[in-house]
Sequence to fold (155 residues):
Amino acid sequence: MIGELEFQQEISALSFLGSLGYQAPVFEMEDVEGLATSCVATFVNIRADRELWLAYGALNSGDKPPALTVRIRKISRKADLYARPENGFFFDDYMKQYHKIDLHPGFNLDAYQGTTRERIRLMLEHLAQLLTQFAMPVIRGEEWPYVEFDWQGLR
Fold:
């Protein structure tokens, strides 16, 4: 996958999470039923009862550029993430519902210029800016929004 190593190296763009009590990220590769491969970074803050899950990956078909997917969930309620908004949510659904911002263009590697490493760094810096501007009470564990899962016509 394009940029897997660079994603792991540039995750320092989210170093501010350490000052909020998040542990250093754990990395793993994730394969979704042969359809997509992602490098996943998981940040955990036990005190805030939060987990930030970042998946950088692409469809195995190669017809779309790599992109970033972000989920926020309560550690204490990991089960059944998709069906229950009280357990966790996708950050793009949160941004659409609460701030009327569509993240898809900005979380697509082709939205940035430069080398793969530079583009990944810019994408992660963009995420850091959005988290600090719009989601600090959530990632600090001070509030929990009700975010509907966007089924995108599949339901």
The chain has a mean pLDDT of 88. Residues 4-139 form one domain.
